[in-house]
Amino acid sequence: MSLLKLSEIVELSNQRNIPFWQVVLQEDMRERNVTKSESMKTMQSMFEAMKEADESYNPHLKSLSGLAGGDGEKLEKFRMKENRLVGDFLVQVMEKAVKMGESNACMRRIVAMPTAGSCGVIPAVLLTYKEQRNASMEKMIEALYVAGGIGEVIAASASISGAEGGCQAEIGSASAMAAGAVTYLENGDNEEIIHAAAFALKNMLGLTCDPVAGLVEVPCIKRNVSGAVNAVIASQMALAGVRSAIEPDEVIASMKRIGRLLPSCLRETGQDGLAITESAKKVEMRMSQ
Questions:
Q1: Which residues of 6-40 are buried (b: 16+ CB within 10 A; e: fewer)?
Q2: b/e map 42-52, b = 16+ CB within 10 Å
Q3: Residue 267 — φ and ψ, nearest 5°?
Q4: Local structure of 86: helix, strand or coil
Q5: Residue 286 backbone dihedrals phi, psi, to 5 degrees
Q6: Where does residue 168 fall: left (phi above 0), alpha (psi -120 to 50 degrees), or beta otherwise?
Q7: Which of 103, 229, 236, 276 sits a CA distance of 20 to 30 A from 15?
Q8: CATH number for the domain formed by residue range(s) 6-288
Q9: Where are the domains of the chain?
Q10: Which tens digits make up the pLDDT trace of 192-203?
Q11: Is it the case that residue 1 has pLDDT exceeding 70?
Q12: What percent of the chain clears pLDDT 90, i.e. is strictly above it?
């Protein structure tokens, strides 16, 4: 996609008198030389793949490291309890985020949105929304275009790679995408969409990529939960009329600068952070035996 700023999408939306998602759709049609029907069919297939991955979660599977598996079921059971501080929507978001992350660790089919390491954030928010709000498939596809547009801008103007920008570039980007998408689903306007994305990304700035034993399991899976819940909170703030003091595009530019400032030992190399703790070393030793 040729658009490098969220403000460009908003400007085109206003000029063409079409919604945010449709600007992204038109860019996809132009860039890939496909029809509207073909583009939307591709987006629907991605949503259906996310749904299938969620429904096929197997709590009995364990990753080869033994670090991942079964926690999604624990959260599902926890959701059935009444004495919870958190409402049903957020608990289900947490549950689905963990399930998707565990499925990825167990080599199951997932949708990388925008990366495999952040695969639980967007599905957790959107699948929960569809189930609890009974939203139409058409509306969900439109929300995915909103998420995709935000993700494309971040990828083009900053990064979605943990090795390049730290986990802020993966979980942070996914959280911003989910925040914009759910804001659209709640009938948010263009300004609310991009400010929701800004809030979500701001909350993730500086997040390191320090996977234990080099695996996309710890702390990655639980960070998907944080990213998903963060997206919902960011959306609610924007819908309430709260606005980011820093312009959304400036937040993205800041993430790029921060990513460059992060030392390489905190960018997916496993050379520092959680990856070199005593607990992590024990995992590595066990796996090497």
A1: beebbebbeeeeebbbbbbbbbbbeeeeeeeeebb
A2: ebeebbeebbe
A3: -125, 70
A4: coil
A5: -65, -40
A6: alpha
A7: 236
A8: 1.10.4100
A9: 6-288
A10: 999 999 999 999
A11: no
A12: 97
